[in-house]
Amino acid sequence: MTDRARAISAFITPFGLFEWNRMPFGLKNAPQSYQRMLDNALYGFTRIPRLEGDPVSKQLDPKTSPDLIPAEPKDDGKKSVLGRRSYIDDILITAESWDHLRNRVEGLLDVCDEWNLSISVVKSFWGKDQVEYLGHKVSNHGLEATPKDLSALTDLSFPGSLRAMQSFLGSLNYYSKFIEDYAIYAAVLYELREVDFAAMNKPENRSRIQDLAAAVGDDMEQTGKPAEADIRWIRA
């Protein structure tokens, strides 16, 4: 936290006024700031070039916030540690072999040590053939939906109002890539958003909803190109 950020995020308690030394949860810009810091650490952008006359730079203290000071990149030729972006603090490492995975893990640990990042061993999984990541199952066979999340959709009651129908379609949209011919099934239901909801009583509309609910319960797997290598995963 910069000196200015500490001052404006201070909070009052019965014991006095306290200021944060490290960025807490709940601040409006915290997710974006943390994501940018991880991108800088893991994906090659270790320093952002300095901008002349930048008012933000004048408010930063090089002693307390050296990683936030814009400067020339440390190494213009630095390669990405993982080869892809991660979602905030959910880091996924992929590799084509065990040796490849080991090298990437060593690179990740070196970066974490340099940027003062800690990894929770309890919440991490190492050397797995399949992991759950951002609500999906990821493996060398492709991308699959998580069964426990699907049960919440398949157990939904028949929509009784236009708002309930919109909520139903919104929930299904997240898994639409797993449902074959989703656009065809949902086309009639999306049209109902602009017409009288009484049309829901028509048999063809009810059958569309039942077909969609049944499709969610099928083997929802999005496969990619078959991988011949021994793919290994780490989720941290």
From TrEMBL:
Top-level taxon of the source organism: Eukaryota
SUPFAM superfamilies, per database record: DNA/RNA polymerases (SSF56672)
Disordered as annotated region, ranges: 53-79
Matching InterPro entries: DNA/RNA_pol_sf (IPR043502), Rev_trsase/Diguanyl_cyclase (IPR043128), RT_dom (IPR000477), Viral_Replic_Matur_Polypro (IPR051320)
Domain Reverse transcriptase: 6-138
PANTHER family, per the entry: POL PROTEIN (PTHR33064), RIBONUCLEASE H (PTHR33064:SF37)
Name assigned to this protein: Reverse transcriptase domain-containing protein
Organism of origin: Phytophthora fragariae
